[in-house]
């Protein structure tokens, strides 16, 4: 089985890790049960490191066509070799197109933004999964023939499709919190969607930013933290606390708490907000060298626990979050992080961090989770959103390949992804309010 991607050609870029910079003609990659067709100047947005593993790269000239990516369920390995390829590839291309017509089509209505994000978020960077037996396209010319239409609800998706077939599935997707989405959905009928794809557990297809994977008898030793590894990681920690923030003035009000803590603890600030940009290598080094990481989210919304939290955990750095309830309702144990709202004020929080810093045994207690959970913290490809949506589409199809009905429904997207899921200006309205109340009681 294959995973297919379809799309329109776009302007090439010179980015070194973008394969589009290497495309000058219509490209055909021929592998066992696997073909990759790239129109001139197409942008597949597949990491070049992945494409370097492909066995053979062959070039061919042919008439312009939409961009297609067809990869089978076998692993990709071996070096890449670019060699000329004659036009006899055309027959193979036609055969693949004939097979492709039998695949259910999923149309990404949000266009390029969805297309850029979807590869990583919805497939977890993987293509070789037998259950992903669908075609993906963001070309709206496929509106009438698509089995499912996928909307990224943070981006404006107007105009809405004009000719919805009764049996078509409409899926909403968001990798951001409801705070950034609900206004864009106000005028969309409340029963418009059949399937929801978000990090929240109430979704039809929940895809959280991360998850803890329990250790079992089948777990590889390489996936289990050893005492020696933990001690080695602890030896790297020379700095007190770190915060990496790209955007200042977040709706959660995190900047206010950060400003207070800067006066109380040694806090290193990295990211665009602080004017100290940091690449991936720098990011990892910074994370591993600190005892604590301020994983303050831009919004405080139900189950909104992002890579900030999970990156800290993976680095064996204790995360400090704004709100315990948000993390707890995500199913994450209480004893592996610190929550600011457990304390009466910023001073009490800072004192607690200092106590842990000076007490190695208590600090190491925050890593008891390593005895029960694996190093791996992201969902596997078997649970990827694209594959699950593809499976739902197949469940709705009869043997002949026709979509016959919609057994799924999101009863109310406003209840699922409305303003009530978030607590705006959490720091000022709740944390600071608690502090003022405490001061009033003491006076």
TrEMBL record:
Keyword Transport applies: no
EC code: 2.4.1.-
Pathway where it operates: Protein modification; protein glycosylation
SUPFAM superfamilies: UDP-Glycosyltransferase/glycogen phosphorylase
Ranges for domain Fucosyltransferase C-terminal: 235-398
A cellular component annotation (GO) from this entry: Golgi cisterna membrane
Record's keyword terms, sorted: Glycoprotein, Glycosyltransferase, Golgi apparatus, Membrane, Signal-anchor, Transferase, Transmembrane, Transmembrane helix
Membrane topology of this protein: Single-pass type II membrane protein
Subcellular location: Golgi apparatus, Golgi stack membrane
Main location as per UniProt: Golgi
Residue ranges annotated for the Fucosyltransferase N-terminal domain, each copy included: 102-210
A Gene Ontology molecular function term of the record: fucosyltransferase activity
Highest taxon of source: Eukaryota
Alphabetized InterPro entries for the sequence: Glyco_tran_10_C (IPR055270), Glyco_tran_10_N (IPR031481), Glyco_trans_10 (IPR001503), GT10-like_C_sf (IPR038577)
Gene3D superfamilies: Glycosyl transferase family 10, C-terminal domain (3.40.50.11660)
Segments crossing the lipid bilayer: none
Keyword Transmembrane helix: yes
Similarity section: Belongs to the glycosyltransferase 10 family.
Protein name: Fucosyltransferase
């Amino acid at each position: 089985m294959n995973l297919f991607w379809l799309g329109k050609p776009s302007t090439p870029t010179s980015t070194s890790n973008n394969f589009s910079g290497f495309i000058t003609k219509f490209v055909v990659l021929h592998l066992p049960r696997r073909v990759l067709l790239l129109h001139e100047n197409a942008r597949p947005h597949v990491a070049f490191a992945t494409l370097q593993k492909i066995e053979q790269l062959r070039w061919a000239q042919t008439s312009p066509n939409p961009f297609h990516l067809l990869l089978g369920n076998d692993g990709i390995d071996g070096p890449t070799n670019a060699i000329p390829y004659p036009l006899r590839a055309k027959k193979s291309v036609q055969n693949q197109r004939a097979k492709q017509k039998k695949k259910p089509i999923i149309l990404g209505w949000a266009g390029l933004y969805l297309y850029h994000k979807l590869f990583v978020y919805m497939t977890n960077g993987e293509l070789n999964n037998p259950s992903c037996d669908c075609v993906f396209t963001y070309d709206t010319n496929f509106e009438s023939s698509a089995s499912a239409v996928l909307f990224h609800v943070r981006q404006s998706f107007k105009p809405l499709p004009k000719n919805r077939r009764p049996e078509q599935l409409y899926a909403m997707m968001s990798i951001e919190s409801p705070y950034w989405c609900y206004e864009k959905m106000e005028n969309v009928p409340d029963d418009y969607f059949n399937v929801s794809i978000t990090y929240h557990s109430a979704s039809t297809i929940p895809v959280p930013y991360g998850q803890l994977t329990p250790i079992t008898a089948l777990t590889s030793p390489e996936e289990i933290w050893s005492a020696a590894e933990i001690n080695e990681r602890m030896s790297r920690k020379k700095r007190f606390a770190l915060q990496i923030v790209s955007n200042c003035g977040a709706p959660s009000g995190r900047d206010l708490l950060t400003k207070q803590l800067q006066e109380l603890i040694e806090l290193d600030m990295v990211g665009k907000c602080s004017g100290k940009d940091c690449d991936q290598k720098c990011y990892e080094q910074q994370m591993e060298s600190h005892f604590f990481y301020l994983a303050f989210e831009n919004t405080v919304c139900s189950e909104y626990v992002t890579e900030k939290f999970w990156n800290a955990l993976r680095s064996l750095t204790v995360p400090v979050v704004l709100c315990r309830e948000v993390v707890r309702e995500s199913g994450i144990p209480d004893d592996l992080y610190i929550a600011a709202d457990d304390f009466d004020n910023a001073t009490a929080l800072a004192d607690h961090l200092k106590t842990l810093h000076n007490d190695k045994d208590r600090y190491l207690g925050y890593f008891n989770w390593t005895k029960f959970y694996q190093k791996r913290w992201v969902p596997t490809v078997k649970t990827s959103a694209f594959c699950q949506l593809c499976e739902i589409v197949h469940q709705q199809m009869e043997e002949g390949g026709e979509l016959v009905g919609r057994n799924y429904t999101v009863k109310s997207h406003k209840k699922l992804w409305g303003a009530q899921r978030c607590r705006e200006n959490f720091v000022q309205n709740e944390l600071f309010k608690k502090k003022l109340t405490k001061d009033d009681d003491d006076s």
